[in-house]
Structure to design on (96 residues):
């Protein structure tokens, strides 16, 4: 297993993730491609001191971008939706 700070890359803050956080207490993170669900769960629980109920992951394929004659491809990323125990909050998403 990697270091817990290498597993979690950045939080995903979009309209969809904000609505999910408010409705069903789910938060989203970009994570390392090699990380599995148990690694992600352990990392979130240790870093933010919260209780994780469920982890759902998905790979987001990189898009092909074109600028003039040049064509490039963005890299594939992995996103994790983490369901927290009722009443638990991560201060990073709450703005405190």
């Amino acid at each position: 297993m990697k270091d817990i700070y290498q597993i979690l890359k950045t939080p995903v803050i979009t309209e969809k993730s904000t609505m999910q956080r408010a409705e069903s207490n789910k938060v989203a993170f970009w994570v390392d491609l090699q990380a599995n669900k148990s690694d992600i769960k352990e990392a979130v629980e240790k870093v933010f001191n919260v209780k994780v109920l469920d982890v759902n992951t998905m790979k987001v394929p990189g898009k092909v971008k074109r600028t003039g004659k040049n064509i490039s491809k963005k890299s594939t990323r992995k996103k994790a939706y983490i369901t927290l125990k009722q009443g638990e909050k991560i201060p990073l998403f709450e703005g405190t």
Observations:
- The mean pLDDT is 91.
- The chain is about 30% helix and 35% strand.
- The helical segments are 4-7, 15-24, 37-48, 91-94.
